Amino acid sequence: MFNFEYYTPTKVIFGKKTEERAGELVKSFGGSRVLIHYGGHSAVRSGLIDRVKKSLDEAGIFHVELGGVVPNPHLGKVREGIALAKKNGIDFILAVGGGSVIDSSKAIAYALADPEKDVWELFEHKRKAAGCFPVASVLTIAAAGSEMSNSCVITNEKTGEKRAYDDDIARPKFAIMDPELTETLPDYQTEAGCTDMMMHTMERYFTQGGNMEITDAIAEGLLRTVMKYAQILHKDPGNYEARAEVMWAGSLAHNGLTGCGNDGGDFACHMLEHEMGGMFDVTHGAGLAAIWPSWARYCMDSDLNRFVRYARNVMGVEKKDGMSDRDTALAGIEAMEKFYHSIGMPVNMKELGINPSDEQIEEMAASAVRACGGHKGSAKVLYKDDMIAIYKAARG
Ligand code: NZQ
Ligand code: ZN
Fold first, then answer.
1. Per-residue pLDDT at 72
2. What is the pLDDT of residue 211?
3. What is the predicted pLDDT for the residue at 210?
4. With a 6 A CB cut-off, is 181 part of the ligand 1 pocket?
5. How far is the CA of 63 from the centre of ligand 1 (A)?
6. Residue 160 near ligand 1, beta carbon < 6 Å
7. 284 CA to middle of ligand 2, Å?
8. Which of 155, 171, 257, 304 could bond 162 through an S-S bridge, CB–CB 3.0 to 4.6 Å?
9. 99 Cβ closer than 6 Å to some ligand 1 atom
10. Is the CB of 34 inside a 6 Å radius of any atom of ligand 1?
11. Angle 24-110-143 from CA coordinates, rounded to 5°
12. Is the CB of 100 under 6 A from ligand 1?
């Protein structure tokens, strides 16, 4: 195993009606002037924003609000939030929404702590953040894990670049998780969310050594649990227990727990998908489902033991006479594709609804190489030509 650091300072408040405690919690973390940040319509339509405002009012906390964050959140909205927060002397940002809203909030929070600098420089990796204002969330979708993660992903809508910046100082102060809030999600978003949390675990699972048995056991248990409840939710979206299972899994999948002792993870699928998000604005989890099978077939020979273990322990592929390790690994990948189809997820770009040309694939690979500094991956280290080959195979 490798040495590791595990830092998860986010206080979790989990269960029904916990959003009513938003005001009290902001106060306990020292917030007095709050920017409530949210997305398109869902949190307004459900009355959640009003309930959060009431809770802040009851705690005597000043607040202003800014909605309109889109999935694959835009830098332009971040800049709008920075201006509004400065004008109102904001000292705390409360995200009410999913990964996109939380990430937009984190980006605003970075900028407020270093107001003279352009926040996009962080995403270009030109400098490290000098600080970060406090951020917390009322989570409305189980997916990205941003409610506990150190990551922030923003799209520069002018250049089409979708870029991540990771820093522990942005880990949220608290996360309010009421599984009931996720019951209004369209099925596609629920299942894309389940796919994303599985991928956060798998990115840390398919590595070259260093894996601890305890970490693998947690990861495999998490994956089996999410698969079970993703299928239940596909048929029974109002199932509270299933909502709760995947909501907690989403946080555990990306707060670092499933990576302890490994080499830092692979994350090539995320990098490849971020380019698809930047160019085609696809739903993140669905984009991951569309790229993973092609990535897996391309990389499996370089990390065969892990693929065999995955096939057996996660996908339930049985040992049969005459079946080679390669056959087992392939059976695991095929079983995964079957699972994706069972929850309405795509297994290639055609099913995702995009059809990038050779030139666009070249552009995405070039951009990915710029973003990662030349190469990416652990199961297999990918260079530009590898990325192009995977994108082409994923066209379907
Ligand atoms: O805008 P509204 O109307 O709220 O609609 C949203 C949005 O259309 C809808 N939604 C959310 N909660 C709802 C709801 N609709 C009905 N009822 C509810 N309760 O769902 C749609 C997707 O929301 P979004 O916030 O985009 O989802 P998600 O949590 O999947 O976040 C995706 C973003 O997070 C990034 C992704 O790249 C993408 O930009 N990621 C962030 C990570 C991080 N910071 O740690 C890690 C991830 O790997 C990921 O890259
Ligand atoms: Zn993700």
1. 95
2. 81
3. 79
4. yes
5. 23
6. no
7. 7
8. 155
9. yes
10. no
11. 65
12. yes
Q: How many CB atoms lie within 10 A of CB 369?
A: 18
Collapsing DSSP states into helix, strand and coil, what is residue 156? strand
Q: From CA 396, how far away is CA 391, in angstroms rounded?
A: 10
Q: Is 346 in the pocket of ligand 1 (CB under 6 A)?
A: no
- What is the token pair recorded at 136? 């917390």
What pLDDT shows up at residue 93? 98
Query: Ligand 1, closest atom to CA 199?
Result: 48
Mean pLDDT by 10 residues, the chain (396 residues): 94 98 98 98 97 98 98 98 98 98 98 97 97 98 98 96 97 98 98 98 93 95 98 98 98 97 95 97 98 98 97 96 96 98 98 98 97 96 98 97
What's the pTM value of the predicted model, to 2 decimals?
Answer: 0.97
Contact 133, 109 (CB under 8 A): yes
Query: Is 153's C-beta closer than 6 angstroms to any atom of ligand 1?
Result: yes
DSSP-assigned letters across all residues of 252-265 = HHHSSGGGTTSSS-
Give the phi and the psi of residue 382 in degrees, each rounded to 5.
-105, 135
* DSSP secondary structure of 229-286: HHHHHHH-TT-HHHHHHHHHHHHHHHSSGGGTTSSS---HHHHHHHHHHHHH---HHH
Give the total residue count for the chain. Answer: 396
CA of 302 to the centre of ligand 2 (A): 23
Amino acid identity of residue 30, one-letter, is G
Comparing CA positions, the residue from 274, 289, 40 lying closest to residue 140 is 40
189 lines ligand 1 (CB under 6 A): yes
How far does CA 159 lie from the centroid of its chain? 22
Residue 99 CA to ligand 1 center (angstroms) comes to 4
